[in-house]
Amino acid sequence: MASGRESWSSRLGFTLAAVGSAVGLGNMWRFSYMTAENGGAAFVMLYVLMTALVGLPVMLAELTLGRGAARSPVQALIHYGGRPWGALGIVFVLAGVAILSYYGVIAGWTVRYGIEALTQGFPADAGDKFGAIATGGAAVAWHLGFLAVTTLVVSGGVRGGIERAALWLMPALGVLVVGLALYAATLEGASAGYAFYFQTDFGALADMDVLKDAAGQAFFSLSLGMGAILTYASYLSRDQDLPAESVTIALSDFAVAFIAGLVVFPLIFALGLQDEVGGSTLGALFITLPKAFASMGTAGTVIGVAFFAALVVGALTSAVSLLEVVVSTLIDQTGMERRTAALVCGGAIALLGVPSALSLDVLGLVDQVGGQLLLILGGLALAIFVGFFMPDPTGEASEGSRFGALLFAWRALLRFVVVPILAVVSVYTLIDTWNALAALVAG
C-alpha cells in the first residue's frame, strides 16, 4: 500500500462499505420492476448468470487493480498500463460525477418524502404531490442538502467517515428490509404479489433486450464501471481475500434487491394498486407506493417511513462511494487535503446536479449517459485492460486468497466472455442513448 495512504480498520468495515456502494435506490425498486417486466423468475436466472459471467469477473478486476496499485482510478491505470490508460480512469471519474449529480436529486426527494411522511403522513394525491416537488427550487434545496451530508461523511476519511457510517447504516438497512418483507407477507392478497413477482417466461431468456437489461442491472447494481469498488480496494491490505470479497458483495447486493421485491409486490397487490404500476421507476417509488401507504392509515405511515428510511440509507451509502472516487482522485492528483478535496468535489457536483433538479428530461438524459452508457463502456474497457494488458493480474488477485487455484480461468473469462457480452450491450446502450438525446432535442 502506498506510503501514508488511508486504510480500512477491519475486513468487516470494507465489506459493509463495499456492499453499501452496491446497494442503492436501484435495488429497492429497479430490480423488482425489471424482474416482473422481463420474464419473472427467468429474468432472475439471467441476472444471476450475468452476475456470475460478467459482474463477478469485472468486480474482481476492479478489486485487483485497486489493491495492487493502492491508488485511485487514474493513477492505478497509469501505474499498470502507462499514461494512455489513465484516460479510462478519467471515464470512471466522469461516470461518478454524472451519476452523483442526478442521484442527489432523487435522494433529495427520498429524504423529503420520509420526513414529511413522519410529520404529516402520506398524501392521498400522490401523483400531484410528486409533480409538485420533483422539480423547482425545493428540489434543488433537498438535493444540495443530501450532497452536503454525503460530503460530510467523505470528509471524515476512510475510517472516521466512510467505514464508521457503513458499520451503522448497513445493519440498519438489513433490519429494515427484512422487517418490511415479514410485514408484507402478513397482508391479505400478498400471494398475488408473489405470483406476479415469480411468474416465469422462459422465452425471455432468448430476448436480446432482456439480456441487455440483465447485464445492465448487474453492472449498475454492483457499482461497476464507475471506479467505486476500485477506489475502495485501494485502501485494502495485502492479505485480503479478493475472490471471496467479490462473492460476498455480489450475494449481499442480490439479497437486498430480491428481498425488496418481497416488500414491494405483496404491498401493491394487497392494496389493489397493480394496475397503476407503470414503466417508471420514479413513478413507482414516489407515486404508487406512497398512495399505498396513504390508504393504510396509521400503519401505512409507520411502514412507509421505514421503507423510505431504507431508501435513504441505501442512497447515502451509494452516494458516499461515488463521491469518494472523485475525492480520492483529486487527492492523488494534487496532494490536496481530504476535507478541502471533499468540499471542492461535493460542491462542484452539487452545482452540476441543479439542471437535473429543474428538469426531469435532463435528469433522464444524464441517467442514460452516466448511469448506463459510461458504466458499460468503462466496464468493457476495464475488462480489455485486465484481460489483455495488465501484467500478471492472476498473481495479484491470488495473493491472500484461499481460492487462488480457481483463478486460472478468470482472465480467459474476461477476454472471451465478458468482452463480447459487454461489446454487444454497449451497442444497444449507445442506440438507447442516441434515442434519448434525440427525444430531448425534439421535445
Tell me what you see in this structure.
With 443 residues, the protein is an all-alpha fold. The protein has a single domain, classed as Hydantoin permease (Orthogonal Bundle). It has helices spanning 11-22, 25-37, 41-69, 73-81, 86-120, 126-133, 137-155, 158-185, 190-197, 208-221, 228-233, 242-270, 281-295, 298-334, 338-352, 354-358, 360-389, 393-398, 410-442. The radius of gyration is 21 Å and the shape is globular. The N and C termini lie far apart (51 Å).
N-end to C-end Cα span: 51 Å
Q: Any low-confidence stretches, pLDDT <50, length ≥5?
A: none
What average pLDDT do the residues reach? 89
CATH first level: which class?
Answer: Mainly Alpha
Helix content: over 70%
Number of structurally distinct domains: 1
Cα-atom radius of gyration: 21 Å
Number of strands: 0
Report the structural category: mainly alpha
Query: What share of residues are in beta strands?
Result: under 5%
- The assigned CATH architecture is Orthogonal Bundle
**Sequence of secondary-structure elements:** HHHHHHHHHHHHHHHHHHH
Largest sheet: none
What would a concise description of this structure say?
By secondary structure, this protein is mostly helical.
Which features characterize this protein?
443 residues; mainly alpha; Hydantoin permease; globular
List the helices and strands and how they pair.
Layout: H1 11-22, H2 25-37, H3 41-69, H4 73-81, H5 86-120, H6 126-133, H7 137-155, H8 158-185, H9 190-197, H10 208-221, H11 228-233, H12 242-270, H13 281-295, H14 298-334, H15 338-352, H16 354-358, H17 360-389, H18 393-398, H19 410-442
Helix pairs in contact: 1-8, 1-12, 1-14, 2-10, 2-12, 3-4, 3-10, 3-12, 3-17, 3-19, 4-5, 5-7, 5-14, 5-15, 5-17, 6-13, 7-8, 7-14, 7-15, 8-12, 8-14, 9-12, 10-19, 13-14, 14-15, 17-19
